[in-house]
Amino acid sequence: MIVGLTGGMGCGKSTASRLFSELGFRLIDCDAIVKEEVLVDPAIVARIIGHFGAAVAPGGCINRSALAAKVFSHPEELRWLEALVHPEVSARWQARVAADPAACWVVEVPLLFEKDLYKLFDFVVCVACSHSQQLVRLEKRGVSRELAEQRIAQQLPLSRKVELSDFVLSNDGTPEFLKSQVTCLAKRLMSESAHRHPTQA
């Protein structure tokens, strides 16, 4: 079983995915693949430098803040970067799932609906919270309100993600409230997976 986990920036996707992991799901974080694998791949780095210039990669290593500054106010540059990076990310996580198809996987994908990836998953779970809560959490991470609003605006509206998802986790309350929701949903999903893939005698 493959569960796609998505939601808005600052809604708590990483917290929810960690909770799923603690309950026995195998976790894949697409943002981590970008940071730890794709943006350090020499071929990818060379193409980014060739397009944006050496200033985004001092010493030959991608500076993600400098790269973000280049793309988030220029939609055409963001599209170029996503066209380069996203297929690489998708291929890498799908290879991991293919290596152990019987496992229960949770794949954290921020732009799951924006990139029409929902067909790759058995279920889609959205982590949601209020807009004001998003901004508070992002500011605590050091993201300015202006940049937070800019980046949120570039994603599909959270209300639409909620509509399109199979299950929704509300993260406006306490950590314990989120954990109780994840625990209930994990049991339901595990049960669903057992019915889909009965153990052979």
Q: What would you call the quaternary organization?
A: single chain
Structural class: alpha/beta
What is the percentage of strand-forming residues?
5-15%
**At CATH's second level, what is the architecture of the largest domain?**
3-Layer(aba) Sandwich
The CATH topology annotation of the largest domain reads as Rossmann fold
With helices defined by DSSP (H or I, 4 residues minimum), what is the helix count?
Answer: 9
Task: Give an overview in words.
With 201 residues, the protein is α/β, with parallel strands linked by helices. The protein has helices at 13-22, 30-36, 42-52, 64-71, 75-99, 131-140, 145-153, 158-164, 175-196, and strands at 2-7, 26-29, 105-108, 123-128, 167-170. It has a five-stranded parallel sheet with strand order 2-3-1-4-5, with helices on both faces. The two termini are 20 Å apart. The model has no long low-confidence stretch (mean pLDDT 92). It has two domains: 1-25 and 104-195, Rossmann fold (3-Layer(aba) Sandwich), CATH 3.40.50.300; 32-103.
